[in-house]
Every structure is written in structure tokens, then in C-alpha cells.
């Protein structure tokens, strides 16, 4: 997928849900396996402005587009919600879920169109 650039004016601020499927929890095997070396990851901070008191989550390719997997916090009650993830190298698509509404990141300069015809923000981890 090629990365497309868009301006804030074209940001999909009231985006519809991405083309996600319901995530089903699989049972973990009971037999222990030898530990495999962990892939190198980088600390990545995600941040978005929203009305103080909002419920803000981060969903993306890194968490199977689960809209409740990563809650972002407004530690200073100033309307700036943020959170940190450890992500492997590569391209990661994401959206914020603000009070139940899927929103592309208005501050992200990189976008890709998804199969729903809306935009996903793109974070490249080096």
C-alpha cells in the first residue's frame, strides 16, 4: 500500500469504523514453548486533542483494530489524550476512537485509504 499525503481539511474527522472484524480470543496452548527472541521494538507516543472528559482509545493494525484495546489518558485534564506503545519496525495504520467515533489523526501527515473509503493514519517506525 502506498502512503498518501493529505491536508487537515481532507482529514476524515468523523470517520466510519474501519474494515475490522470482531476479535475472538483463542485459547492459549498449555504446553510451554522455548522463549523466542523478542523483535526489536520502539517506544511510540500517540496523542490527540479532544474535549476534556472524553473517552479516547487507539485502534490500529498493531491491535487488530480493537476499539477498546488501548485507552489514552488526559493526565492534566486539558483535553490532550496520550499513550505509549512499543511497536516493531514497519508501517502501522491507526485511528483514534473518540467517544465512540472513529477519527483519523488530524496531526498525522501520512494517510492511506482503507477498504471503507475512509482514511487511516500511518505511523512509520524505523
Question: Explain this structure to me?
Answer:
This protein has 126 residues and is mainly β. It has strands spanning 4-5, 41-49, 56-60, 70-72, 80-88, 90-98, 101-103, 110-113, 119-125. The strands form 2 sheets. Strands 1, 3, 4, 6, 7, 8 and 9 form a 7-stranded antiparallel beta sheet that branches. A two-stranded antiparallel sheet has the order 2-5. It starts with a strand and ends with a strand.
- Secondary structure class reads mainly beta
- β-strand percent reads 35-45%
Low-confidence stretches: 1-31
What is the element string, with H for helices and E for strands? EEEEEEEEE
Radius of gyration over C-alpha positions, nearest whole angstrom: 16 Å
Provide a concise account of the structure shown.
By secondary structure, this protein is mostly beta strands. It is built from no helices and nine strands.
Write the layout of secondary structure elements.
Elements: E1 4-5, E2 41-49, E3 56-60, E4 70-72, E5 80-88, E6 90-98, E7 101-103, E8 110-113, E9 119-125
Antiparallel strand pairs: 1-8, 2-5, 3-4, 3-6, 6-7, 6-9, 8-9
Amino acid at each position: 500500500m502506498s502512503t498518501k499525503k493529505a491536508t487537515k481539511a481532507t482529514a476524515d474527522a468523523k470517520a466510519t469504523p474501519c474494515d475490522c472484524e470482531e476479535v475472538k480470543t483463542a485459547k492459549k496452548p498449555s504446553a510451554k514453548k522455548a522463549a523466542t527472541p523478542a523483535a526489536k521494538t520502539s517506544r511510540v507516543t500517540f496523542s490527540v486533542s479532544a474535549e476534556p472528559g472524553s473517552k479516547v482509545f487507539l485502534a490500529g493494525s498493531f491491535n487488530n483494530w480493537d476499539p477498546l484495546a488501548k485507552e489514552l489518558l488526559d493526565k492534566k485534564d486539558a483535553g490532550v489524550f496520550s499513550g505509549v506503545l512499543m511497536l516493531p519496525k514497519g508501517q502501522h495504520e491507526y485511528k483514534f476512537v473518540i467517544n465512540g467515533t472513529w477519527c483519523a489523526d488530524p496531526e498525522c501527515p501520512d494517510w492511506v485509504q482503507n477498504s471503507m473509503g475512509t482514511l487511516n493514519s500511518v505511523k512509520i517506525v524505523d
